[in-house]
Design brief:
- The chain is an all-alpha fold and 158 residues long.
- It is 78% helix and 0% strand.
- The chain has 5 helices and no strands.
- Helix 3 packs antiparallel against helix 4 (105-120) and helix 4 packs antiparallel against helix 5.
């Protein structure tokens, strides 16, 4: 039993992202002398995200090794499908980042979230039901997130 090459690739990419976040925070703390462990520190949120990603990354590696399966011909079809979905999703994220300034954060994020949830949902239910469920969740989640980040944390959003 072993992990597939794509599993190792994903583990490596996520590991690089986690390392980049934590090393960047360490560099900022050392170069600018900003206190990290303070409620008013501008680095506390990125630090918590980095640590959470690190813990989840380690747990994912452990779970992946425990549940590793041997590959067969059906896995290659599933892997190809997953790679196509990932590439399309990356294109969607890039498109979202390019158009968000033009259509606004709330509308752009709602549309992006609906599209992502419908596209990533592999259930056998009808597309109309997927779209309605995604729209309900998106229309509630995005304004709440906007309020929390814009009004509570005072983060400027596009």
């Amino acid at each position: 039993m072993k992990l597939r090459w794509i599993d190792w690739l994903v583990i490596a990419i996520v590991g690089l992202i986690v390392a980049f976040i934590l090393i960047s925070i360490y560099g900022i703390v050392n170069s600018k002398g900003i206190e990290l462990f303070s409620v008013t520190s501008p680095l506390i949120f990125p630090f918590l995200v980095g640590v959470t990603l690190l813990v989840c990354w380690i747990l994912t590696i452990i779970k992946g090794i425990k549940n590793a399966v041997t590959t067969n011909k059906d896995d290659s079809k599933e892997l190809l499908h997953d790679m196509v979905v990932a590439i399309i999703y990356i294109i969607g994220v890039l498109t979202y980042s390019l158009v968000i300034d033009k259509i606004g954060f709330i509308l752009g994020s709602i549309l992006f979230l609906i599209t992502g949830m419908v596209f990533m949902n592999y259930d056998e239910e009808k597309y109309s039901k997927k779209i309605i469920n995604a729209a309900i969740v998106s229309c509630i989640t995005v304004p709440v997130l906007y309020y929390v980040f814009h009004e509570v944390f005072k983060v400027m959003l596009p």
